[in-house]
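Example 305.
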Amino acid sequence: MKRYWFNKLISVALVLVVALAVFAISCAPKTEATEEIRVVVSILPQAEFAESVGGDKVVVTVMVPPGYEPHTYTPTPSQLAALKQADMYAKVGSGVEFELAWMDNIIEANKNMLVVDCSKGIELAEMVEHHHEGEEQEAEHHHHGKDPHIWLSPKNAKIMVENICDGLIQIDPENKEYYTQNTDKYLAKLDKLDEDIKSSLAGITNRSFIVFHPAWGYFARDYDLEQIPVQIEGKNPSTKDVANLIQEAKEHNIKVVFASPQFDVKSARTLANAIDGRVAFINPLARDYINNMHMALGELVQGME
Ligand code: ZN
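Predicted structure in complex with zinc ion:
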């Protein structure tokens, strides 16, 4: 009789253990599903793209911090270590030096994360160089590279946003609708931005602008402007280059040298003084992309008038 009750007790205990195990297993995926997707991006403007698409389902971190620029930035060891927690890495993909130098290490740091190429579907343009009429072009041989600054064209930004959306859907297909809706909303804002730029620039007849760091090539192409860079291939201008720029500024009646906080502002000021003009700031790397593009547009319109 005792043995009977003992067996009964054992079987009840077993049932309880099994029930607990089933309960635990059924609970586990639920807690995982509510966890945010960790997205890492290379540059700040991509943060607004990823946050706009991912909404409250993503946490976004940026490799190149404010005040630094992606042509020379070196990630810190703690940034590389933090990649172990990432689910997705969205690279710019257009040949930004930071990625050329570090992408292998970034992938090595976490082989499980999905790497999204934001430039997929964007045709890279040649880095436009400015040649002066009658100037001996062979005098100094320049290597013509592709222009990596794709994000400053709203048209390109739309493709970058769509690539990020595809990546998030690949990681989290259950929320496909959510990501698609968010993407459509943000793309509409980019269309509005594009319209605003077109209408603001419609009345401008003098469409040349001098900018210290030539980040605005795609922007100039899209809106029929001429970017005259001070820096050539990341190098500051020679005395002869400066003389040419001063001549150029006089010809086009240019009174503003556009600069950005990440680059040599002093040289921009020297040139501005030489043309009896001023320095204005346009930021190619702000996190609040759309807002910042509106501000840059305002400065450009004012500076080209
Ligand atoms: Zn740049």
